[in-house]
Amino acid sequence: MSTETLKISLAQKILGISNDSLLKKLKAIIEKENIIGYVNGKPITESQYISELNIINEEIDNSTAKLFTTSEVKKNILNANNLA
């Protein structure tokens, strides 16, 4: 079965479900596995990304976040790529 056929089949089955509990479980599984990008070559899920953002926001609120000026960011990029 091709990926597209599998998606359509699964979508049809989900549309036929009327059990809220089961739908919530399916939603949780899908959200847990929803890969939204890659960090250092490793996949990151939506829930991991949101968790990281929450941690960063707490650090900002507590004034413990490590922040950089534009000049510092440019310097770090140049140094990391041996361009300086």
Give a description of the structure.
The chain has 84 residues and is mainly alpha-helical. Helices cover 64% and strands 11% of the residues. The chain contains four helices and two strands. It has helices at residues 3-15, 20-33, 46-61, 70-80, and strands at 35-39, 42-45. Strands 1-2 form a two-stranded antiparallel sheet. A hairpin with a 2-residue loop joins strand 1 and strand 2 (42-45). The longest helix has 16 residues, at 46-61. The protein is elongated and about 60 Å long. The mean pLDDT is 91.
Give the helix/strand layout.
Layout: H1 3-15, H2 20-33, E1 35-39, E2 42-45, H3 46-61, H4 70-80
Antiparallel strand pairs: 1-2
Name a few traits of the molecule:
64% helix, 2 strands, two-stranded antiparallel ribbon, 84 residues, mainly alpha, single chain, elongated
Please sum up the structure shown:
The protein is 64% helix and 11% strand. The protein is mainly alpha-helical.
The assigned structural class equals: mainly alpha
Give the % helix: 55-70%
Q: What portion of residues belong to β-strands? A: 5-15%
Number of helices: 4
